[in-house]
Amino acid sequence: MDKGKIILRKFKTIGISVLLFFVGATVAVIGSPTPDGYTELLNEKNALTESIEEQGSELSNKEKEIADLLVLKDDLKLKEKEALAKKEEALAKAEEEKKAQEAEEKRKQEEAQKLQASQNKTPTNVTTNSGGNSNAGTSNKKPAAPSKPQDTTQSGGNTAVEPIGKMVWKTATGKKYHSINNCGKTNSSKATQVTLDAAKSAGLTPCSKCF
């Protein structure tokens, strides 16, 4: 804008100088102007002055347009700079998010691998411990002593203790129960089988021959 003012001033100075030169040359050529000649010169001067002012006005308008363009240029540069800064910020943020996501995925993979390794290792330990416990139990366990057969008779010659639910044979008229259905004179066709408890409840006693 300062350059435009300087140009305008130079343009006005040159115009005035040309005008003075033109007036001086006219006076020198024709001598003292007549009233009509003076009026003509004055009109020419006014026309030239008006032309200079119009050109100065146009120059001022051009100067204003140039100033507006410079402001617009500065605004565009500022907006471009802001857009570039936002773009760089967005790229940096995206890069950080990408790195964070990759780190999270890596962490999850490592946890999954550790969990898988732990699951694969646990059954082996259980089997080993079970085997060790089994072996320890076997080695610590003493051989069971063979069970002694239960005495079927009580001290003093008492009759044997019969297991509950044992089946015996009896006759319709006999007072004893038998372990077989054809003991002595027992008629096997008439013998019936009952439980030992039932025979004892009926007052029957064991046969001395078959018991």
UniProtKB/TrEMBL annotation:
Compositional bias segments (type: Low complexity): 114-140
What ranges does the record list as Basic and acidic residues composition bias? 96-113
**Renumbered residue ranges of the record's region Disordered:** 96-163
Regions of biased composition (Polar residues) lie at 149-158
State the protein's name.
Uncharacterized protein
